[in-house]
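Format notes (please read before filing issues)

Several people have asked whether sequences and structure tokens are stored in separate files. They are not. Every record keeps both together, in the order shown below: the sequence lines, then the token lines. Line labels are part of the format and must not be stripped during preprocessing.
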Amino acid sequence: MHRRTVRQALAGAVPPSRKTPERTSPRLAQFQAAIDAMLRGDLDGPKKQRHTARRVLARRVDEHGAADLSYSTGSPTPGGTKTRDNPTLDPAQPMSRMAEAGSA
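Then the structure lines:
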């Protein structure tokens, strides 16, 4: 056991929270505004006609010439946007969603 670990245990019973790095995607940053506009437009239409990650990639290639981006570069984008814009979908707070659903 490392000295730092023992020192932290003596200082308090609860371990310090871990730092999560802020993830960035520099290759996707130039298309982020266009992707957000696509996904915001989906909110008005029927649920079955919303953009999938595959369709977002196809539109980036067709409309913006992003042929050098792979599917995996932008595949988390549609789900990430939903979480980022809607605080009730925050995966860090699963119990609060369940509590709200139970009280409704």
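For reference, the curators noted about this record: The two ends are 48 Å apart (CA to CA). Helices lie at 3-11, 32-42, 53-64, 71-74, 77-85, 94-103.
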